[in-house]
Amino acid sequence: MVDYIIDQNLAILAVNNPPVNALSHHVREGLVEGIKKANANDQVTAIVIIGKGKIFCSGADIREFSNHAAIKDPVLTSVGHTIENSGKPVISAIHGNALGGGLEVALFCHYRIASESARVGFPEVLIGILPGAEGTVRLPRLSGLSFAMDMIASGKQINAKDAFKHGILDKVCTGNILEEAKDFAKKVIGQPLDSRRLSRINVEDASNVDAVFEVALAQVKKKYKGQIAPIYCLKSVRNSAKMSFDKAAAEERRLITELMLGYQSIALRYSFFAERSASKWRLPCGASVNNTKPSKIESTGVIGAGTMGSGIAVCLIRAGIPVILVEKDPKMLEKGMETISGILDGSVKLKRMTPGQKAKCMEILKGATSLDKLSNVDLVIEAVYENLELKRQIFAQLDKVCKPSTLLCSNTSTLDIDKIASATNRPDKVVGTHFFAPAFIMRLLENVYGSKTSPTTVATVMELGRRIGKVTVLVKTCYGFVGNRTHQCFGAEASFLLEEGCLPQDIDQVLEEFGMAMGPFKVSDLSGIDVGWRIRQEVAKAAGFKLTTETRYHNGERISTVGDSLFEMGRYGIKTGKGWYKYDPTNLRKPVPDSDVADVILDHCAKMGLQRCKIPPQEIIERCLFAAVNECFRVLEERVAEKPEDIDVIWQYGFSFPRYAGGPMFYASQVGLKRVYERVCFYHEKFPYSSHWIPSDLLRKLASHSVEIPMSQWKEFVNGSKL
Ligand SMILES: CCCCCCCC/C=C\C=C\CC(=O)SCCNC(=O)CCNC(=O)[C@H](O)C(C)(C)COP(=O)(O)OP(=O)(O)OC[C@H]1O[C@@H](n2cnc3c(N)ncnc32)[C@H](O)[C@@H]1OP(=O)(O)O
């Protein structure tokens, strides 16, 4: 796992642990052996540590952390001490990335050089820990306190040029990194090493540490609300200036141990792997990412120049994929093109894109008013409003107009893909591509297969998601798919809580304190109360009844229409300056609780004869989350989602579920399924008119076991395969 190569008078230690050169046990062993061997060889005058493949080193092997008691010697700090104490100079030669423990290895070395394109960083905070092999004690000795606090607490990666500027690197190389490392090594042979050993030098500006810490702490608390690790990162860097090197390193060890055993880090490590596992799709027929090739997509069409269509077009052109945007009303088309241009202008303003890049994007965007213009594209995404008949008409027409190989995708957020596909003669090439609004910002893409969608079609839209930078999850068709179907239960309970005693701000506050980026009523104001109203009207129409503000039940199912009263008052949310909250036109980001809304709610309750009472925060959390969790288990049971990780990724990226709480499925696993099941049964008894409280069979089966079944085994209980 570490290749030992002698090249003239140099020993080259090449870390060889694909795919990302993580510091697994054998790598750590190999580094220690290599350093010792090189020191014992009189012919060797200097040592170079380099990574094989595309990367220097991605850091500690995160998988080892789940069984940290079994982490075998040598641990990374003793590897590092062997490197630092080497009597011969050790140079790290960085290309690709040096992350976390990988950067720590470099900081143990006497010299660090890197390719121009290399990036370095301490992403540990993103998995809820801190750099635990003296990174928090060593970095400030090179870069100063303020920079170290920012870099470690944010987890951001910086490029080689910036790393050089901040003292982390000794040289930025333009040529072959190994050749440059060899030349560099020859120049430093024989030079004294003590001043190059970071454990022997002091932190500059140590006297300022408390002031620097307070400023950084205030920023971190605001930016990473609710998260523990960023604060511990700052504390550990502060220690580096207040204590001896050895004492600060021992404290760092104590802090990382505490973090690693904590709930947030366990959830964040789970989230890291869940996100990666989502891309490993598999269909019930056995086709999977490993055995199915995507088709080539070189041109696309997007139908509908409204908010969604424009947003989707931005995602495609930003990735260099040409788009024909079709909108039958020329004025709407013009407006859509302007919206797209405006979105890209925003990116230029934020320096996420140069004006030249914007111009290139606009060059590959064409407008059209007829579907005929899509005859030759490889893939079409329909993004018209949510109406099954309209979508079926469009798909039937596309089937006639487009070449036989064109994939036909719908951005429907709820409708059955099979019903759309059956309007065509190519149901194998019909698939759902459900973007979340605003499509050019939200990273989630929920791809939906129908009963006839082919593996190649699935592979193609999964690959398209990757190409446009989305976190892409595959699910099976059903009403609302995974995201909206499970989130609807969450929203329904939030509305019922309004009818029983809460105000919007009470519910939002509790759920924000739980960790949601925004409570459901702030989200509703942002997305538009009119949008929710329209969806509810469509659903009622499809179900054959008229929904009014008087409706309380349909088919024995409780319905809350309190939001519809706001719609009727023209309170659509931020866009009208009033919704669940009121907004000062000069500060639309700040929702202000509105006594008029309280009056509407109280009035609604009085009219409906609903008794109000005080509802404790714990009930708010349970009602919203457990209702969703129960539905998530049903989704798993019906194999709408293939694995619990897929559901959690959808909630994190679609509904801002806090990553440090994992997702509804992970959360349920931590609460304990027995407890979750008991509470679902309790609410089912209390609220018999909400079918989302009917306990899921899968949840019942799992909860009936005397020991908790690990998440990785839940799938085995689907379809009665295990009892
Ligand atoms: C109880 C107390 C005990 C205390 C013991 C404390 C000991 C502490 C000592 C040292 C501590 C050091 C801390 C660390 O170093 S933590 C790790 C920090 N590093 C990271 O977080 C990097 C994470 N990885 C990435 O950001 C990316 O993977 C990247 C390296 C940029 C590559 O990206 P990309 O090319 O897009 O590839 P993927 O992300 O898809 O990854 C490919 C596969 O590799 C797996 N992977 C990646 N990094 C790691 C890793 N560090 N450990 C294990 N596995 C890793 C990833 O899951 C993919 O796997 P698969 O293909 O199976 O999905």
UniProtKB/TrEMBL annotation:
Gene3D superfamilies: 1.10.1040.50, 2-enoyl-CoA Hydratase, Chain A, domain 1, NAD(P)-binding Rossmann-like Domain
Cross-referenced PROSITE patterns: ENOYL_COA_HYDRATASE
Any matching Pfam family: ECH_1
GO cellular component, one term: peroxisome
CDD domains: crotonase-like
Ranges where the 3-hydroxyacyl-CoA dehydrogenase C-terminal domain occurs: 480-583, 620-705
Entry GO MF terms: (3S)-3-hydroxyacyl-CoA dehydrogenase (NAD+) activity; delta(3)-delta(2)-enoyl-CoA isomerase activity; enoyl-CoA hydratase activity; NAD+ binding
Top-level taxon: Eukaryota
Signal peptide interval: none
Domain 3-hydroxyacyl-CoA dehydrogenase NAD binding: 301-477
EC number of this enzyme: 1.1.1.35, 4.2.1.17, 5.3.3.8
Cellular location(s): Peroxisome
Principal subcellular localization: other
Keyword terms: Fatty acid metabolism, Isomerase, Lipid metabolism, Lyase, Multifunctional enzyme, NAD, Oxidoreductase, Peroxisome
Biological pathway: Lipid metabolism; fatty acid beta-oxidation
Any GO BP: fatty acid beta-oxidation
Reaction equations catalysed: (3S)-hydroxyhexadecanedioyl-CoA + NAD(+) = 3-oxohexadecanedioyl-CoA + NADH + H(+); a (3S)-3-hydroxyacyl-CoA + NAD(+) = a 3-oxoacyl-CoA + NADH + H(+); (3S)-hydroxyhexadecanoyl-CoA + NAD(+) = 3-oxohexadecanoyl-CoA + NADH + H(+); (2E)-hexadecenedioyl-CoA + H2O = (3S)-hydroxyhexadecanedioyl-CoA
InterPro entries in the record: 3-OHacyl-CoA_DH_NAD-bd, 3HC_DH_C, 6-PGluconate_DH-like_C_sf, ClpP/crotonase-like_dom_sf, Enoyl-CoA_hyd/isom_CS, Enoyl-CoA_hydra/iso, NAD(P)-bd_dom_sf
Keyword check for Nucleotide-binding: no
Keyword Isomerase: yes
Subunit annotation: Monomer.
Family, per entry: In the N-terminal section; belongs to the enoyl-CoA hydratase/isomerase family. In the C-terminal section; belongs to the 3-hydroxyacyl-CoA dehydrogenase family.
Protein name, entry field: Peroxisomal bifunctional enzyme
Organism: Elysia chlorotica
